[in-house]
Every structure is written in structure tokens, then in C-alpha cells.
Write a structure and sequence with these properties.
The chain has helices at residues 5-11, 17-32, 51-67, 88-91, 95-110, 139-147, 158-167, 196-210, 222-225, 229-245, 278-284, 304-314, 329-337, 340-346, 375-385, 394-403, and strands spanning 38-40, 44-46, 76-78, 135-137, 155-156, 169-171, 183-189, 215-218, 251-252, 265-274, 294-297, 323-327, 349-353, 369-372, 388-391. The protein is of the alpha/beta class and 411 residues long. The protein binds FE3-S4 cluster. Residues 79-80, 119, 140, 239, 299-301, 326, 356, 358-359, 376-377, 380 line the site of FE3-S4 cluster. FE3-S4 cluster binds at residues 79-80, 119, 140, 239, 299-301, 326, 356, 358-359, 376-377, 380.
Length: 411
């Protein structure tokens, strides 16, 4: 692999052991994947932040790296942590876990990373332009960056994204190359796809068929997806595809920036048709007759528009079941400034910042059964958080919060 003299110097330790270790990781990945050279990145999203996933070994690894002088050299944002950094005690999180989580964040801060703690960095200012090379981790964020923004990133792991931030480069392979951004699966959608949960169910079905390939979706309402609400629908669509099929890039005809590019569909692309979303809904509904004791919105982290919509659906009614919306702290603060947060909390809702129900140790909080319209959360909650899941529309989930009984309709 070709390295510039400067890159070679970093690899040989010219800027200390912390930078050298980062360059070793970037170069090793490049060699494994047959990259010809490195490419400079304009931003990084680092995952592997929750102490629940890192454990003691991960904490030590990060602390050592920070102590070796590793510092990021491009704008870098952080994925969700294991708890709400301000309200953890109030929410019932364990003090010992909180102390360890704090040490993880101290290591990242020492490396120059602001603790943004969100999987929607693009909603809080980390917004690469089309064609920019970036190194992002977290599957839904990767999907959004590639597909909706038209930026270029592979699905980085926590250490590889951090290494890229420290050296400002990543290896040029995979989705950094034009040839790998072409669609290999054409999906004709021949059924109504309207709500947030519909887009999630569709994403689960497409991901199951795509399995790592790039899908090209036809038949979706391009006008609606090009409006403001489209951001929320596309982020849930991409998150679901990433969960069920490791899809890191998708195209939607007439909507996503590369969908009209010449030769964007490979000549040998396979065709499939989706006529019914119910198999997607059924795949995510694994709670049987259990009653939901928590309703969750915000996977990926919610936008202000989603929070506004939940308040509209509550329509002045009080929640009987805890209703949590997970979102970036920066957006939570904005909601507090414009009064939206207060309107939501007055109805018994709760905005939980910095974390989510997959990366937080929610099993210790006593919840057993979740209702959610978020497909990725529904997909992972049983295995990662030990919760039974009801998956349905935003309307049904809000009704569940208000009435205390499961209001989902599975046909
Ligand atoms: Fe984000 Fe957690 Fe979902 S990291 S995409 S809210 S599983």
C-alpha cells in the first residue's frame, strides 16, 4: 500500500506512540482489504462508548491510548453512552456503572472529542457533504451518511473510527470507491409505506434480502420523502436495513443523491418485489400477551419533529405507562428552550439524552416489555436488553402509553 512520507513517518512513531498505534490500525485494515492508499477524512463518528459494551478491558484500552498522547485531528462525534449523563440517578441507574461510564468519557474528552453521545450526529452539526470521505461507526449513522448525505464511509468499528480520527485518514477501499456504490439489488415496493413503523418494517424485509449488498428501492413516495419528515423516515429505513442485513448504503429512486447517477445499478442486479409489510411487522413482534411497561421512541435518536409529533398524538392526555424518547442532548436542550420539552413532560413523557435502550443497562431498571415504532430498537432489544417487544405504529405506541394496554394491531 502506498503511503506518503508523512504517513510513513506517523507509522514509524514520529508523533508518539498514540498516533503510531492509530496509524498501525488504519494501515492494517488497508492491507487486509487491499486498499491502494489512504484517503483524508473530514469527520468521524466513534462508536463503542457505552461501558455496558466496553467493559473494563475497553475502558483500559481507551485510557491507555489517551495517556499515550492520542488526539483527534478532525471533527469527531460520539455515539450514545450507557446512561443519561445528567439524570442517571433519577432514572435508577447504578452509581458504580455511572462512575465507570464517566471514566470512559474522560478518556474520549482527553483525546479531544466532545461528548455528543448521539447516533444522529447529522442532526447536531456533523453533516458531511456529498462525496466527502468520512470514517463513521454505528450502523444507522453509516447508512445515513452514505445513502442520504452521499458521503463515503465504510462501516467502521469503534477502534478503527477512533484511529481514523487520530490520523485524519482511513484506508481507501469498500464504499470509498465508486464501483462498490452501485446497486446489486432492485427492490420494487408495491404496497403502501407511510408511517415510521412501515418504513422500519420495509427496512427489515429489504435487509433480509440484501444481506450486505446495496439495494435500490423503487415505488416509494419521492415527494413525501423529500420533505422534512423524509429525514426521519429515511433514518429509520436505513437503521432497519443495517440491523437485519448489514446494509451500509441504499438508494431510493428520485430521493437519495446518488440514485440518478449514471450506471448506479449494476447490470447483473437481482430484482425482488415487496407487496406486503406484515412479515416485517411480525418478525419484530415477539412479546405475545405481555403488557408493555415502557414505550420507547428515538431509535435512531429522535429529531425535534418526531418529539413534536408525539406531543400531537398525546393530544393533551396523560401517560399511564412510562413514555421515553431518546435523543441528542443538544436537541433536548433546544426543545427545552422552545417549550416543547415542557409540553411533553407535562403529559408524563420523558426525554432521555445521551443513551438508548439498547446500549444502556435497562435490564437493571426493572422493565420487561417494550412497545416501540422503531424497527432497529425492536430488532435488538430482546437480545441486547432482555426485553420482550411489541412493534407497531407511532399512533398505537402512544395509545399504549396513554391507556396502559397494548394497542398495536397485527393483521
Ligand atoms: Fe441509536 Fe441506540 Fe438505535 S445507538 S440507532 S438508538 S440502538
Amino acid at each position: 500500500m502506498k503511503l506518503t512520507p508523512y504517513e510513513q513517518a506517523l507509522l514509524e512513531g514520529a508523533e508518539g506512540r498514540g498516533v503510531q498505534k492509530a496509524m498501525e490500525i488504519v494501515v492494517a485494515l488497508g492491507r487486509i482489504y487491499g486498499a491502494e492508499d489512504l484517503v483524508e477524512v473530514t469527520s468521524v463518528q466513534v462508536a463503542g462508548v457505552s461501558y455496558k459494551n466496553l467493559g473494563e478491558a475497553g475502558l483500559e484500552f481507551l485510557s491507555d491510548w489517551a495517556a499515550q498522547g492520542a488526539r483527534v485531528r478532525v471533527p469527531t462525534t460520539l455515539n450514545p453512552a450507557g446512561l443519561d449523563l445528567e439524570s442517571w440517578r433519577d432514572l435508577g441507574f447504578d452509581a458504580d456503572f455511572a462512575a465507570k461510564q464517566q471514566r470512559v468519557l474522560e478518556a474520549f474528552v482527553a483525546m479531544g472529542i466532545a461528548p455528543s453521545c448521539t447516533c444522529t450526529p447529522y442532526l447536531v452539526g456533523n453533516l458531511p457533504a456529498r462525496g466527502e470521505h468520512v470514517a463513521w461507526a454505528e450502523s444507522s449513522a453509516v447508512s445515513f451518511a452514505n445513502s442520504v448525505l452521499g458521503a463515503r464511509t465504510n462501516r467502521e468499528g469503534g477502534p478503527s473510527a477512533l484511529a481514523a480520527a487520530i490520523v485524519g485518514r482511513t484506508a481507501r477501499y469498500g464504499l470509498h470507491l465508486d464501483a462498490n456504490r452501485r446497486a446489486q439489488l432492485i427492490v420494487e415496493v408495491r404496497c403502501p409505506v407511510h408511517s415510521l413503523s412501515d418504513f422500519g418494517a420495509l427496512g427489515i424485509l429489504v435487509g433480509q434480502q440484501a444481506r450486505n449488498r446495496v439495494p435500490y428501492l423503487r415505488g416509494l413516495d419521492a415527494t413525501r420523502l423529500s420533505q422534512a419528515i423524509g429525514i426521519d423516515l429515511l433514518k429509520t429505513l436505513g437503521a432497519a436495513m443495517a440491523a437485519s442485513g448489514a446494509v451500509a448504503l441504499y438508494h431510493v429512486e428520485g430521493v437519495t443523491p446518488e440514485s440518478g447517477a449514471p450506471d448506479i445499478i449494476a447490470p447483473d442486479a437481482e430484482h425482488i418485489t415487496i407487496k406486503d409489510l406484515q412479515p416485517g411487522y411480525q418478525a419484530l413482534n415477539r412479546a405475545g400477551e405481555f403488557t408493555a411497561d415502557l414505550v420507547w421512541f428515538g431509535c435512531p435518536h429522535a429529531s425535534l419533529a418526531e418529539l413534536e409529533e408525539i406531543v400531537r398524538l398525546l393530544n393533551g392526555r396523560q401517560c399511564k405507562v412510562p413514555l421515553w424518547v431518546t435523543m441528542a442532548r443538544q436537541l433536548r436542550d433546544e426543545a427545552a428552550r422552545n417549550g416543547l420539552l415542557q409540553r411533553f413532560e407535562a403529559l408524563g413523557g420523558r426525554v432521555v439524552a445521551d443513551t438508548c435502550l439498547v446500549v444502556a443497562p435497562v435490564e437493571g431498571l426493572g422493565f420487561r416489555c417494550l412497545a416501540t415504532p422503531c424497527a432497529k430498537g425492536a430488532y435488538y432489544a430482546p437480545t441486547h436488553s432482555g426485553m420482550a417487544v411489541h412493534f407497531s405504529s407511532p399512533e398505537a405506541c402512544v395509545e399504549t402509553a396513554v391507556t396502559g394496554s397494548w394497542a398495536g394491531v397485527i393483521t
